[in-house]
Design a protein that fits this description.
Blueprint (H helix, E strand, L loop, with lengths): L1 H42 L15 H10 L6 E5 L5 H7 L4 E5 L3 H13 L7 E3 L13 E5 L5 H11 L5 E5 L10 E3 L6 E5 L7 H4 L2
Parallel strand pairs: 1-2, 1-4, 2-3, 4-5
Antiparallel strand pairs: 5-7, 6-7
Length: 207
């Protein structure tokens, strides 16, 4: 009898561990599926030929952008506005700020943040492809680019931007033009360009 009790007591913990293991597998599997569903809209724009993967701006990057925009005013566009933080921060400094973002979840998040911060009537977010969006109405343009895009972005700026437009490039500079100002260092560096002060062959870059 004692032997039977001992055997029974030894097997019950194993069964419990097995059940817990199965439950954990089920939970982690469910989480993985959920994350895939949630993240898919964030990842899919990055699979396009031209992509701006979502990387949140650091506090120092935001501060550098605001420093780069000192003395400027008017309309401002954040190309690939992500979570909308730059749009909201620049609106707090009296810019008429708009954001262009292709990812619907990031766009929704931006609009919710605008409501939460009481800025929903002062900012605008558009779900548009940045390559097809007209830049000609803006006095200032901010872009968090990736290296392989900067040459084509430069051509777009030269074709579409106002002559007095200030372009603030973050993380990577424009490849063929010299900035009028550089703020910060490392990954937080921003480069400022003004089209009226550029000395280059625009026709050469437009091809």
């Amino acid at each position: 009898m004692n032997q039977f009790i001992e055997t029974t007591n030894n097997t019950n913990p194993q069964r419990k561990i097995s059940s817990i293991g199965k439950a954990l597998v089920g939970i982690t599997g469910g989480i993985a599926i959920g994350l895939t569903i949630i993240c898919a809209p964030f990842i899919s724009p990055a699979l396009r030929k031209y992509c701006l993967p979502y990387i949140p701006a650091t506090n120092e990057q935001i501060a550098n952008i605001l420093s780069a925009l000192k003395g400027r005013s008017g309309t401002l566009l954040d190309l690939g506005s992500g979570d909308g933080r730059i749009v909201l921060e620049t609106a707090k400094h009296n810019f008429i700020s708009h954001g262009v973002e292709l990812n619907p979840w990031l766009l929704l998040f931006s609009k919710i943040n605008a409501i939460r911060e009481g800025k929903s009537n002062e900012v605008k977010f558009y779900r548009k492809d940045l390559w097809k969006y007209d830049l000609s109405l803006y006095d200032n343009v901010v872009i968090f680019g990736v290296e392989h895009m900067m040459n084509d972005l430069e051509k777009k700026f030269l074709r579409e931007c106002k002559l007095d437009c200030n372009i603030v490039a973050c993380r990577f500079p424009l490849p063929n033009v010299k900035p009028i100002k550089t703020v910060g260092h490392g990954i937080d560096t921003v480069w400022v360009y003004n089209l009226t002060k550029l000395n280059l062959n625009v026709d050469r870059l437009s091809h």
